[in-house]
Amino acid sequence: MIALLEQMNFWHWIALGLVLLLLELLGTAGYLLWLGVSALLVGAILSVIPLSWSLQWLTFAVFSLFATWLWWRYQHKKDRVDDKDRTLNQRTEQMIGQTCVLSEALPVSQGRIRLGDTSWLAKTEKPLEAGTLVEVVDVEGIILVVKAKQ
To answer: Are residues 24 and 39 in the same domain?
Structure first.
């Protein structure tokens, strides 16, 4: 086995990198991408600088871990930003910006409006008459804050 490892040259690393990248195309969700890129980098370095087989594998391991860690950091930061803007499973947050016509007058304090197929508690700063087109501008707990749409 050691004899096989000692015979590895840069073509073997480039072939390994290409095979890993081709396997990535089968849908491994990025697991083999950075390994393939690392193998290609080791092949490029080995074509310029001769390295022992143990140093080749060490370089491959370091490149793989570093590239994977960098990608994880980038993706983790991006996911956190995306999560702040997501309204999935937050029905009240999805109501902001929706409009409806009041079927009954809405006093200044709290009243009920029909939005979609549900009756919601709503409040407004000014009394609104029935037939007024209103827009949901905010949500406070389960109470929709509405205003007349111009």
So the answer is: yes
Q: Say how far apart CA 69 and CA 75 lie, in whole Å.
A: 10
Q: Identify the bridge partners of residue 118 per DSSP, sorted by sequence position.
A: 115
CA–CA separation, 1 and 7 (whole Å): 10
Angle (CA) 26 69 11, round 5°:
55
What is the pTM for the complete model shown? 0.56
Phi, psi for 2 (deg, rounded to 5):
-60, -40
Q: At what angle do helices 10-24 and 33-48 cross, to 10 degrees?
A: 160
The answer to whether the beta carbons of residues 135 and 97 sit under 8 Å apart is: yes
Last residue of a domain, one of 36, 56, 85: 85
Mean pLDDT by 10 residues, the chain (150 residues): 82 95 89 94 95 94 95 84 64 82 86 86 90 91 88
> Tokens 């570093």 belong to which residue?
66
Q: Give the DSSP H or E segment for 9.
A: none
